[in-house]
Amino acid sequence: DASAASIFGPSRAGKEDRARILALLTPEEQTLIRLRNSGAEWEAIGRELGKDAAAVRQQFSRLQRKMAGMV
């Protein structure tokens, strides 16, 4: 759950909330969060997901907004 905490930042979400929200995400979204929170560069994440780095950055941004709305 430590990697999930990074995307939430200093949020109101508790450990149970983070786990609940992560369980609602697609496997690809979970992979994106895990890779980015582990320090992977956008290019490396894009290669892993079979996408362009810019597309992955945009997906991550949308994912952050989506998750913020779930808290």
Molecular structure report:
This protein is mainly α. It is built from 5 helices and no strands. Helix 4 crosses helix 5.
Order of helices and strands: HHHHH
The biggest beta sheet, please? Answer: none
The amount of helix comes to: over 70%
Beta strands, count: 0
Which structural class matches the secondary elements? mainly alpha
Low-confidence segments? none
Q: What's the N-to-C terminus distance?
A: 16 Å
Gyration radius from CA atoms, angstroms: 12 Å
Amount of beta strand = under 5%
Could you tell me the mean pLDDT?
Answer: 84
The coarse overall form would be elongated
DSSP helical segment count: 5
Keywords, please?
mainly alpha, 71 residues, 5 helices
Per-chain topology:
Blueprint: H1 2-8, H2 15-24, H3 27-37, H4 42-49, H5 53-70
Q: What's this model, at a glance?
A:
With about 70 residues, the chain is an all-alpha fold. It has helices spanning about 1-10, 15-25, 25-35, 40-50, 55-70. The chain is elongated, with a radius of gyration of 12 Å.
